[in-house]
Amino acid sequence: MHLVPADRAGRRIIDDHRVCDAIAAVGDSGDVARWAGRFAVLSDPNRLALLLAIHAAAPISVTDLSVATGMNDAAVSQALRLLRTGGLVTGERTGRVIRYRLADPVIHSLLHLVRPPHEAP
Predict the structure, then answer these.
(1) How many domains does the chain have?
(2) Taking the model in full, what pTM does it have?
(3) Domain that holds residue 92
């Protein structure tokens, strides 16, 4: 029971090795919060659609993302602003056009699980 914090040491435990395994799996609360933030971004259907489109067709512009997802340019730009702030995508400017690609390798791997590139619907 070496992993049980002192403030929980007095609680009833049935399987101490399972409690230690569970505490180790939860890990650092900061890491849990960062993962929750990633999942919060993925929980919005429009942002997820954008990430899937970027995953399959990067680098891709706002206008092209708008056509691909059925969203208007303003909505795409707003969602991309959140995705950039969260470090999930990055933009490359060529003249007046900014094209986006994934910046987070973990999200890239997760998107492979959601829908591998060029998978038929």
Answers:
(1) 2
(2) 0.79
(3) 44-114
- Backbone dihedral angles phi then psi of residue 9, each to the nearest 5 degrees: -65, -25
Check residues 120 and 55 and name the one with the higher pLDDT.
55
User: Residue 47 has which token pair?
Assistant: 């942002």
- Asked whether residue 13 falls in the same domain as residue 66, the answer is no
Encode the chain in three state secondary structure.
Answer: CCCCCHHHCCCCCCCHHHHHHHHHHHCCHHHHHHHHHHHHHHCCHHHHHHHHHHHHHCCEEHHHHHHHHCCCHHHHHHHHHHHHHCCCEEEEEECCEEEEEECCHHHHHHHHHHCCCCCCC
At residue 44's C-alpha, the angle toward residues 43 and 45, to 5°, is 110
Q: Cα 26 to chain center, whole Å? A: 18
User: For residue range 48-93, what is the model confidence (pLDDT) as tens digits?
Assistant: 999 999 999 999 999 999 999 999 999 999 999 999 998 999 999 9
